[in-house]
Structure formats: C-alpha cells, structure tokens
Amino acid sequence: SVSSIVPESCLLIVVGLLVGGLIKGVGEKPPILKSDIFFLFLLPPIILDAGYFLPLRPFTENLGTILIFAVVGTLWNAFFLGGLMYAVCQLGGPGLNHIGLLANLLFGSIISAVDPVAVLAVFEEIHINELLHILVFGESLLNDAVTVVLYHLFEEFASFEQVTILDIILGFLSFFVVSLGGVLVGVIYGVIAAFTSRFTSHIRVIEPLFVFLYSYMAYLSAELFHLSGIMALIAAGVVMRPYVEANISHKSHTTIKYFLKMWSSVSETLIFIFLGVSTVAGHHYWNWTFVISTLFFCLIARVLGVLVLTWFINKFRIVKLTPKDQFIIAYGGLRGAIAFSLGYLLDYKHFGMRDMFLTAIITVIFFTVFVQGMTIRPLVDLLAVKKKQETKRSINEEIHTQFLDHLLTGIEDICGHYGHHHWKDKLNRFNKKYVKKCLIAGERSKEPQLIAFYHKMEMKQAIELVESGGIGKIPSAVSTVSIQNINPQTLPLERVLPALSKDKEEEIRKILRTNLQKTRQRLRSYNRHTLVADPYEEAWNQMLLRRQKARQLEQKMNNYLTVPAHRVDSPTMSRARIGSDPLAYEPKEDSENLPIITIDPASPQSPESVDLMSEEPKGCSGLPPSPEEDEEGLVMRVKEPSSPGTDDVFTPGTSDSPSNQRMLRCLSDPGPRPEPEEGEPFIPKGQ
C-alpha cells in the first residue's frame, strides 16, 4: 500500500537513512558511496540495460528534440545556475564571498544534469506515454557528454592561473571529441561483439558473456580516455543487439534479458541505499542562503529552459508538444546519484567548499526524488496525460507501419526531399546489402526472422509427417507444396506435377523468398526534372480515345431516337410507336424491307432502350426474305447480354460487319445541308 503512493527510490533512500543511523548509533563509521565504486560497478549495468533495450524507433524519430534538450538545455541550466549562484555568493555575506565564478560554474554543471537512474526509477512506475518517457529519459542519457565536458573543463580551469580564449575554444571542441568519441568506441565494440557472436553456434553457454564483456570493455575504454562512457555503452548496446539476437539461441537471449534486468535492479537498489547511508555518514556544511537559492534557481532554470526550447522545437515538429507535455518534461527533471558522485570527486585542495556543495546537492536530490517523484503520479492522473499502452502492437499495426514508412520514403523521393525516411531507407539498404552478410551467420542474414522461423517449423512438421507415414493428420501449418512433394500419389491424375529434386525445390523456394521480400526494389531513380516518358502511355491514350468516340457515337444515336420525326411514316416514328404500343401498330403491306429492331428486355416500353447496334434491314443482308418474315412484318428480337469480362468497345460482335457500319453511318448522318452562300464562311462560327 505504501509503494503505490511513494516511489521505490524514496523508500530505498529511507532504508539507507535508517541503516546509516543504526550504524552510527552503534558507534561504527557508516560506509560512504565512493565515486570509483559508483562509476565502475554500479552505473554500467543500469546504462547497459537502458541502451540494449532502448526503443529505437521513438528514439530516432525524436532524436533532434532529445539532443536539443540534452545539449542546449543542460548548457543553459549550467551557466544560468552558475551565474546566479555567483551573484548570490557575492551578495550573501562573509561566508560565501570567497567562492569564485569557476567554482560556481562547476557546481552548476554538476547539479544541472538530469539523472537517468532517478528518471528510470520514477517514470517506469507511473507508466507515462512513450513520447514523454523517451524525451526525458533520452535527455538524461545524452546529457552525460555535456556534464563530463563541463565538469573536467572547469576542474582544469580551476588549476590554471589564467584562462585564455584558446582554452575556451579547445574546451568547446572537446565536447565534440567526448561525445562523438564515446559513440565511436561503442560502435567499434558493438561490431566486434556482433562479429564474435557469429561463431558461437557450437558453444551456446558463453554467448551471453560476450554481450556483457564487450559492453563493459566499451565503457572502460571510453572512461580511460575521458570520453563519455554512458554514450559508449548506449552505442554498443544499440549496434550489437539486432545482429547478436539473430546469431544467439533463444535461451541465450532469455538469459541476457533477465540477467540485465536483475543486474540493473540490484545496482539501482544499492545506489539509493548508499545515497541514504552517505547522507548520514558524510560531513555537511549547511548554509541556508546557498542551499535555498540552489533549490529555487534549479526549478526556475528547468522551467524556463523547457518553455523556451519547446517554443523553438514546436516550429519544426509535426506532433507538437502540448502544455501538459511541457509541464511533465519540466517536472520530470530529477537529480540523482551521478550528481552526488561527481560532487564527492571534488578535490579539497582546489575546492575548499566541497562539503557545502555536497549538502546542497543532497538537498536538491532529496527534493526532486521525494517531492517531485511522489507528486508526479497524481499530477499525471489529474492532467489526464496519455498513459503507455500495456499491450504489444499487433501484426496488422506492424505491417501498416512498415507500409507507411515505404509510402513516405517514396513521397520524399518523388519530391526530391532528403528527409528522415530517405536516410533511414538508405541505411536499411546498406545494412541489408553489406553489414548483415558480415555479421549474421547463415541464411538468417537474407530473410526476416519470422519467415526463417516459419520455414524451419514447416520443414520440421513435414519431416515428422514423412516419418509417421500417415497423411490423415496433416498439420495446418504445412504448405501445399510440402504435401505435394511428400505424397505425390494423392494428387488427381490430370494435375500431376513434375517431380523435382530436393535441391531444385530448395533453390526455387530460396528465389521466391528473396524476391518476394524485396518490397521496394528501385529499378530507376526518378527525378521531377528528368521524368522518362512511359512507352505504354501513347497506346493507352489511343485506347481511351477510341472508347470516348464509341461512347459519343452511342449517345448521338440515342439522341437521334428521341428526336421527333418530320414524316409520319419514317422509320424513326415506326420505332417509337412500336416501342410504346406494339399491338396497336399495324405495319404496311410492303413491310419487307423494314429493319429488325432489337429491344432491351429491361424496359421494353421506353423508346430509349431500342438498340441500334444490332439493327439490320432484311433486304440488306443479301438473302431473300422468308415467308414467315413476310407475315410477321416487324420482327423484335431480345438482345443477348454480353458475357462478363468482355469489352463492348474492343470485342468484335455481329454488328461490326461493313454493312452494319454503313447502316450506322446512314442513321447518324442528319442529311445534306443547304449550300453556303458566297458571303458565309465554310465552317460556321461556334462549331
């Protein structure tokens, strides 16, 4: 019941305070969280767990926002806090006057960074939505490079007698060296780990060891050269995971997952307990002015930084950060044990006020973890902030997400815009073409894991079916091809397939799998300035024109049928009368040469339904009329419906004979026009 209200990190700090108080009450000296123990043994498991299981898609989609918060936001916090604390020290009386600008800037750089351990401990309990979680957690991971650079920079400057402009420029450049150098070290060790896992198929037991070994080597190598160890661990975890998981067995994957979770959980517990114990055991120097000013300016700097940066970021984001999101980001800026360990590392020789700095740091940590950590859950519920979906995404959602990725990449290609999806697609192509062949063993480098697993399952069931010798129990997963190859006798005689060898069948399957998986194989590179003409376009246009002319002709004939005739005995009037009332119409005696009219059975009463396409005079066919036709006069035949799938324009019928076409031209011709006079133009206006 207590853990539902109070975060686990707060309870662990309380346990640490009680343990430290008991040890001190007994008369022993409580142990203090040494920085070497923290940075070498307790921090790496937590960062490796976060980096190895990092949700890569939301992280890469929001990488620009995360970097702005991590780099610009941390620099703003450090310099804003350091400058204001220097002003407080100058105005704060005799106890603070001796603290210079560099010492305050160093203190600002230590206290300004958001702590990944504290953020993980609090945000995983409140189940905040994925966007906010990755923004705050990504910022806490990537601001390590800024913190390391500023910390070492101001520590070095404190020992200088005079700081020149060249030192400041070199310090600025060192930021890129520390951050990019850490990432490079992590990528190198990640590739080595992936390459090593390619050859571990015979010794599955030690597969998890390589993941932990190479990740820890990446962290130690980065820290050895004062590079960012946290960024090296994240890069190593992100790079090695897809290739390592394709090579290792399922049991090894489960071992890595649960061992990392257990290891990071134990480290997190020890960090917060040691934080409580160190609070009791350490030397403290309390100064109300300095401590309260630090706490107040930390909150002000965080809120101002988030508001200004979000206003700038929202100009470029499609999904804007709402005021609720901004509040959670600002409120989730928790401080933790990294700040305490960096403060503990300060040298008394250059920083005589180390105890006061540690006291202020512990106060800020306790305030953010206890007050903000305990109140963030009710505030999330109060503001109705979107929570994280507990269920995994369905295959349908996965397929549509990939489809939209391909669609957006195609749109970017057509527009000539090299955006996020374009470069992601380039990277995926390079990965499939070159990297996977080197780092993944066997067939798994060529086909997705799901298809490989299905193929393996299908083969296994087919083998079991053959061994059992019965066709009665056919598993549903076995495909038709497998059954045909196992028992060709069951097929009907007229559909006997040619017998294929197993090698040939495997080759055909491989060709099908590799080609069907190429969902977006680009044959030509299109550009809006150099579009190639389609060779089929002209033929298609001719076809459309022919259809259009046929429709116009049919419309003209229908209009002709509805126009009243001038003569009473004209064929048009006869057709109209026979359509309205066929019994009341008595044909003339000389009705031998009257045309045969086909009437649509859908509505035989309407004159519009008369179809002229099959109209033909009996005398025009070249045969003498029969006596039955003489007696009947006008013969009405039902139009046969066209077979489905035939084209009424392009399929030749009985009405396409030359005599029928002459008849159609005859009927559609309105007759001779009066001769134009001399003054009139040959083609009248308006036509």
From TrEMBL:
It catalyses: Li(+)(out) + H(+)(in) = Li(+)(in) + H(+)(out); Li(+)(in) + Na(+)(out) = Li(+)(out) + Na(+)(in); Na(+)(in) + H(+)(out) = Na(+)(out) + H(+)(in). Residues 477-562 form the Sodium/hydrogen exchanger regulatory region domain. It comes from the Eukaryota. It is found in: Basolateral cell membrane. Residues 6-380 form the Cation/H+ exchanger transmembrane domain. GO terms for biological process: regulation of intracellular pH; sodium ion import across plasma membrane. One of its GO terms (cellular component) is basolateral plasma membrane. Residues 583-687 are annotated as: Disordered. Keywords: Antiport, Calmodulin-binding, Cell membrane, Coiled coil, Glycoprotein, Ion transport, Lipoprotein, Membrane, Palmitate, Phosphoprotein, Sodium, Sodium transport, Transmembrane, Transmembrane helix, Transport, Ubl conjugation. It is a multi-pass membrane protein. Residues 502-529 form a coiled coil. InterPro entries: Cation/H_exchanger_CPA1, Cation/H_exchanger_TM, NaH_exchanger, NHE-1-like, NHE_CaM-bd. GO terms for molecular function: calmodulin binding; potassium:proton antiporter activity; sodium:proton antiporter activity. Signal peptide: none annotated. The chain crosses the membrane at residues 6-25, 37-54, 66-89, 101-122, 134-154, 166-196, 216-239, 260-282, 288-314, 326-345, 357-380. Residues 652-662 have a biased composition (Polar residues). Pfam families: Na_H_Exchanger, NEXCaM_BD. Belongs to the monovalent cation:proton antiporter 1 (CPA1) transporter (TC 2.A.36) family. This is Sodium/hydrogen exchanger. It comes from Vidua macroura (Pin-tailed whydah). The gene is Slc9a1.
